[in-house]
Amino acid sequence: MTPLDELKQYRKSIDNLDDALIRIVAERFRITKAVGVLKANNDLPPADPARESQQVERLRALALDADLDPDFAEKLLNFIIKEVIRHHEQARS
Amino acid sequence: MTPLDELKQYRKSIDNLDDALIRIVAERFRITKAVGVLKANNDLPPADPARESQQVERLRALALDADLDPDFAEKLLNFIIKEVIRHHEQARS
After folding, report:
1. What is the predicted ipTM?
2. From the CA of B89, how many Å to the nearest CA of chain A?
3. Shortest CA distance to A33 belongs to which of A73, A93, A88, A89?
4. What is the pLDDT of residues B28-51, one digit of tens each?
5. What is the separation, in whole angstroms, between the first and last Cα of chain A?
């Protein structure tokens, strides 16, 4: 296999993983939107610091197991949660 | 099902999706690291603007199909690519 063929194979894998990533993130937002509605309809508090710190700890441990930088995993989670908060704010207004 | 039970069920789904997300991102970094080595060993240019814009277009289209904000999908891809570049810079130094 030439280096360019090898590169092409790697890129197919990256594209497949990106597809999976988008689908998973889309499904995650579907659920967090449902959570937002559930909380609003039942006067549950929008934020839950205990749950959030437990999520961070779970993901950091899993990242270590997967040879992923735990700081990056935490930053990624925060990046996604920021978008969840934006959805909830949009839904409220 | 009480609202709190319903919330618990949603949170289990979110945890499962986050686990999948971490595993997929970890696998993506394994491949981009291999790509970095391949490019360095074969004097291939580290950046490929044509490939990158094609990736962005693919993901934006897929996001639309998955009811995900395409701007968010693009920001997410850029967030991950920034980490890939950081890895490549670490590998070089």
Report:
1. 0.93
2. 15
3. A88
4. 999 999 999 999 999 998 888 999
5. 56
Length of chain B: 93
Domains in chain A (CATH in brackets) are 3-92 (1.20.59.10)
Chain B (5-64) residues lying within 8 Å, Cβ to Cβ, of chain A:
6-7, 10-11, 13-15, 17-32, 34-35, 38-39, 41-42, 44, 51, 55, 58-59, 62-63
Of residues A4, A62, A72, nearest to B83 (C-beta): A72
**Rounded to the nearest 5 degrees, what angle is found at the Cα of B14, between the Cα atoms of A29 and B25?**
85
- In angstroms, how far apart are the furthest CA atoms of chain B? 61
Is pTM, for the whole model, over 0.90? yes
Q: How far is A1 from chain B (nearest CA, A)?
A: 12
In terms of Cα–Cα distance, which of A24, A52, A75 is closest to B23?
Answer: A24
Of the partner residues B13, B29, B58, the one whose CB lies closest to the CB of residue A15: B58
pLDDT digits (tens, 9 = 90+) for A2-14: 999 999 999 999 9
